[in-house]
């Protein structure tokens, strides 16, 4: 046996690393499995190149727990190491890697969640083990097997041992404070989290297999392979059926019962390498949305489900996997977001999603329209936050009408141009955010032959602001923003039944009767229209809505709601008010309350008074 001292400047880095990595201890298993996988793949290559002549059929990685000894074992059938290679790769590479990590990490303790991605490698085993043994034999002919043993300090031992097969076995003598890594359930959880799509089969524990049926059924125990080495995203789209995609979704999210609406298979190899499948889930208010997130892999090894910076924010509501060896992970989040190649990846994903939406819309409009309500939030959010996506979405962003026709903006321009262009040449797009609450206003607009759009997501005020900004002659107006004739102003003179003097008298009377918050507006409307109409000017209301959902003008939400009271001077009630001797105020208050009622503004004491007054008037 030989003893040695590893040449590192920090006397004992182990306690330091342990302290720094406290929250991320579990990544040691992923690192050791990655090393075992690398060693196996390297040997496969050497065999293919004719540089190694060994039998290497279906190599696997075995993981097991020895409870009595208090050890966890990871054994591979990879290329193994000679004594010299252990000196070089473990004593120098692994330890210097650990040292480098510490140096970097001490400087910028930037984002705790990234610690696990620093590539601490082999050394991370010391986070959970008080001693680590490596039993290894190189695939090379005439080499001796060796055992390396170390307690994390720079001192190690190296001795020759008897070992038949080539490959490496790592033995972790689990430390007192890490005993949960001797639990089968814990190890299975970690293997499933990080390695369920590992490219080399991983054997851990046993599973029960039932063969035959009824009385002949026999159950036996078989070694369990915990991973699928060939997941859907690694295949070509042409090899996959819809059922395959759905099956993979269920594999990823076993607790999701709702099927995804559609999916997008990502596949690039230039200028960066990226594969993956993104699924559009049905958007619900379900909390699961938060839990089942997009998972990031590197060469089929799970890295994180925090894809911030890599996937455009609006697409983080999607599900699925992304696999890319080109995403630098040993850097902080802020660096990641500024990284040019990562930006390119985000742009690529945004474009791919947009292209896919466009192609579904083109190929199957009916299907797309059916799904519209479930996908619009993502699209609207994308339009708001990603200018390129906004531009591209013009081809498929749909404006549903109340008669359930779906139109793109271009189609709306065509069909509504003739009827809804005002005297200043603006095309006015009328919309409702709530077809029950704004029913009366909708009816008035429809009676004029106008089309009313249903735009009901909270993002809408922001979005129409942006659409108006990029389309000069388009204006949006909610149906209750003003009287319809003011929303779409045409060149027609209205005939007033009352003379100017009467209107003036009437206006004074109303102004003194109604509360100050209403600004009174006298309009000679159609005599069949309601005497009083309450409206809420578009601009103020939109700004307030915007601020409520984030954004808009600062401090707007503190403003009181502003209402206009439109008085229809042609309604017969006006003559009644003018002629009335003592009931003037009662008529005005009654008409105001009715107008409030239709805007859902009549509540509490006001409502009680209204009911009383109504009985009195009967
Ligand atoms: P990295 O994997 O990034 O190179 P590690 O610290 O994980 O860094 O490992 C250091 C080196 O030790 C590896 O590059 C490899 O040469 C060697 N090594 C580690 N584990 C094994 C293994 N199971 N079989 C063969 N070589 C290994
Ligand atoms: Mg490694």
Written overview of the protein:
This protein folds into four domains: 2-205, Heat Shock Protein 90; 232-370, Ribosomal Protein S5, domain 2 (2-Layer Sandwich); 398-492, Rossmann fold (3-Layer(aba) Sandwich), CATH 3.40.50.11260; 496-535 and 560-618, Four Helix Bundle (Hemerythrin (Met), subunit A) (Up-down Bundle), CATH 1.20.120.790. The protein is of the alpha+beta class. Strands 1-6-5-4-7-3-2-8-9 form a nine-stranded mixed sheet. It starts with a strand and ends with a helix. The structure holds adenosine-5'-diphosphate and magnesium ion. The site of adenosine-5'-diphosphate has 18 residues, from α2 and α3.
Shape: elongated
Q: What's the CATH first level of the largest domain?
A: Alpha Beta
- Tally of structural domains: 4
List the bound ligands. Answer: adenosine-5'-diphosphate, magnesium ion
CATH architecture of the largest domain: 2-Layer Sandwich
Strand content: 15-25%
CATH superfamily of the largest domain: Histidine kinase-like ATPase, C-terminal domain
Q: Biggest sheet: strands side by side, in what order?
A: 1-6-5-4-7-3-2-8-9
Distance between the ends: 110 Å
Low-confidence stretches: 109-118
E-strand count: 22
Structural class: alpha+beta
> Helix count?
19
What fold name stands as the CATH topology of the largest domain? Heat Shock Protein 90
| CA-atom Rg in angstroms | 36 Å
Helix content: 25-40%
Helices and strands, with pairings:
Blueprint: E1 2-5, H1 13-20, H2 27-48, E2 61-66, E3 71-75, H3 83-107, E4 129-137, E5 145-150, E6 155-161, E7 167-174, H4 184-195, E8 202-211, E9 218-225, H5 242-252, E10 262-268, E11 274-280, H6 288-291, E12 295-298, E13 301-304, E14 319-323, H7 333-338, H8 340-363, H9 365-385, H10 387-393, E15 399-400, E16 406-407, H11 409-420, E17 427-432, H12 439-447, E18 452-454, H13 460-470, E19 474-478, H14 484-487, H15 500-513, E20 518-523, E21 532-535, H16 538-548, E22 563-568, H17 573-579, H18 584-598, H19 604-617
Parallel strand pairs: 2-8, 12-14, 17-18, 17-19, 20-22
Antiparallel strand pairs: 1-6, 2-3, 3-7, 4-5, 4-7, 5-6, 8-9, 10-11, 11-14, 12-13, 15-16, 21-22
This protein binds adenosine-5'-diphosphate and magnesium ion (MG).
